[in-house]
Amino acid sequence: MKIAGVQMDVTLGDVEANLDKIEDRLRETRSAGATFTVFPECAVTGYCFESIEAASPHAQTIPGPATERLTRLCQELGSAVVFGTVERSADQHFNAAVLVDETGVVGSYRKVHLPYLGVDMHVNYGDREFAVHETGGVKVGMNICYDSAFPESSRCLSLLGADLVALPTNWPPGAECVAANVINTRALENGIYYIAVNRVGVEAGFEFIGRSRICAPSGETLAASDGTEETILYADIDIERARNKRVVREVGRHAIDRMADRRPEMYAPMIEPHSLARPGR
Question: What total number of domains does the chain contain?
């Protein structure tokens, strides 16, 4: 399977222009042979809203107009897509990622870990457990941006059977180390494919850094952007590599299995509630 990540600029609050661009790029990735394409965090709406009142008029329901439009295109192309948006649900708002293919909305995810930045200062915390969804024979999990800084996020998805984790992201300056190192680590420690797709451009004074990346279950970088230009990354993936967690390096002498070798009975401190207050909450 060939997958693609579209590193692109996004226009704050211009849903139609952003969807036009997503459609154009999805046609391009499908023409190049990719059947699964990932776009950045909040690619439909933009990210740097200064209040929920500013974001809400541009927010999307799921399903909604954006998912319906992209479903039609996926039906035409025979493709699947993950993209980010601000989700409106009753009187709540979430930073969300959506997986759409020819059948419609396959699944969606609400960002669990919220940094003090952009629309994340104003939306609600994700209220759903991590989940894995299947499209084209591939089991896909979704995280968003800051989630990658918490290894529990991708570990949960791996334990649920994910072959591939898609991370739409809006990395600003300061996230260079995450882009250069964390994505490879998440792939390696879980034995999964991991695709992190950042945006570029400037919103509200934040210049997003690009540096999107696709990594293999070995932690190897399959494709990466080193700059802040709009670009598309491609990689061929072999799902069996993600499903074979036991790596034998020397028969009878050296084998690694990061799932079977876990010791969850020793990890109790990880799930103890904490009392640290988030600024502004």
Answer: 1
Helix (H, G, I), strand (E, B) or coil at 78: coil
Edge to edge, what strands does the sheet with 164-168 contain?
Answer: 132-135, 138-142, 164-168, 193-197, 213-215, 221-224
Beta-bridge mates of residue 105: 100
Q: Which domain holds residue 231?
A: 2-246
Rounded Cα distance between 214 and 59, Å, is 28
**Could you give the residue numbers annotated as active site?**
41, 111, 145
State the CATH number of the domain containing residue 42. 3.60.110.10
- Per the CB < 8 A criterion, the answer to whether 211 and 225 are in contact is yes
Taking the model in full, what pTM does it have? 0.96
Cα separation, 206 vs 180, whole angstroms: 19
Residue 239 and residue 226 in contact, taking contact as beta carbons nearer than 8 Å: no
- CA–chain centroid gap for 156, Å, is 14
pLDDT tens track for 184-238: 999 999 999 999 999 999 999 899 999 999 999 999 999 999 989 999 999 999 9
